[in-house]
Amino acid sequence: MIKVQEEDFSLTDEITFLKKRCNNIGALSTFIGIVRDKREDEKLVSMTLEHYPGMTEKMLNKINTEALSRWDLLDTTIIHRYGKLLPGEQIVLVITASKHRKEAIESCHFIIDWLKTKGPFWKYEKTVDKGFWVDAKSQDLDEELKWNN
Amino acid sequence: MKVLYFSWIKDKLGKSHEEIQVSDNIKTINDLITLLKQNNENYKDVFKDTSSIKVSINMETAKFEDSINDNDEVAFFPPMTGG
Question: DSSP of A17-49, one letter per residue?
Answer without folding.
Answer: HHHHH-S---EEEEEEEE--SEETTEEEEEEEE
